[in-house]
Amino acid sequence: MNGIFKTFKGDKVLWMVVLILSIFSLLAVYSSISTLAYKYKGGNTAYYFFKHFFLLAFGLFLMYVTHLVDYKYYSRFSKLLLIITIPLLFLTLIMGTNLNDANRWLTLPVINLSFQTSDLAKLSLIIYLSRLIAKKQDDIKDLKSAFIPIILPVIAVCGLIFPANFSTAALLFSISLIIMFVGRVSMKYIFSTVALGVLGIGMLIGIAMIYPKLLPRAETWVHRVETFSSDEVNEDANYQSEQSKIAIATGGVFGKLPGNSTQRNFLPHPYSDFIFAIIIEEYGFAGGILVVLLYMIMLYRGIKIASQSDRMFSSILVMGLSFSLVFQAMINMAVAVNLFPVTGQPLPLVSMGGTSLWFTSIAIGIILSVSRSVDNDESEDVEVANAKA
Predict the structure, then answer these.
(1) Element (H, E) at 238
(2) Cα–Cα distance between 181 and 106 in angstroms, integer?
(3) Helix, strand, coil % in the chain, rounded to nearest 5
(4) How far apart are the C-alpha atoms of 174 and 332, rounded to whole Å?
(5) DSSP string covering 312-328, please?
(6) Smallest Cα–Cα separation from 60: which of 1, 17, 117, 122?
(7) What is the model's pTM?
(8) What's the rounded Cα separation, in Å, for the pair 24 and 16?
(9) Would you say residue 388 has pLDDT above 60?
(10) Cα–Cα distance, 102 to 343 (Å, whole number)
């Protein structure tokens, strides 16, 4: 056991959370891919299971490698990463792979690998903001020298994500505000940004409803909110939510046990967007509470790591990444239990996916890198104290 702990450095509790969520992922994905397998692979569920297994395994490998890299290197390359990200977001917007009337994916030539550029954008913006805010601490309350340079990349990145993926843009914008708050940016600037953002989005959607070609996804967003808030029962409009609620209601306290889900045959995307409903159906209320608790532990450990770090950059970085992962998880679970309109946000480390799973793994690896650095500093302090004694 000591040998394992020496190999996997950093916060041990966080490593255990990752391990348990990964096990949940394998079990839930394998249970929920039957319809997908029959539709595209003649019922070969093993194909999708092993594909997900290797994607998850590679993600854990990326996490392991990332956690061994000194977190200071991420600060040094953050500006370059953002410079690469913005053109990629623009390319995705104008020539990305279209899925459900939204250009969210960019297919790389030669290797034919598709990935959601917004996943890269989330990671690069959080790292860059953490670095910039840490450097601007001496004049962090100033409008020209601090706030404007901080808010401009946020507007650029979120603005490029917004037309095709409102939920991701809103999530990233919210995380950016949290990072600003933690970094002591003036509250009057933060509140002004929120007010202007809400007003601007409202006006843009209003114009788009008159001129649909300006923002094709606006009608979909409005329809989802209207469907969610409506008291009228519309089986076609509320189909996803209704099937998810049936899965949750039939799960009971301890569920139907692994592999016994019936709603996986009716739910759209039960292996990604609605995987939490499948978990509750098969593992019951107890399983659902365990998954929620695991994400709460992840957030708690992230906050603890941030509070233990003696550098502003690492503290803000860990807070930003931790809140990003857990907020995304909460949104996914809220959609599954019909507390939130359908957004399409995957459940981090659990939903079936490729590059999104990898970027999640890298984000956790960076958190563990900071934790490893904190542990090393504490060990050095103990050695110095023992030497003086």
Answers:
(1) none
(2) 33
(3) 75, 5, 25
(4) 16
(5) HHHHHHHHHHHHHHHHH
(6) 17
(7) 0.90
(8) 12
(9) no
(10) 13
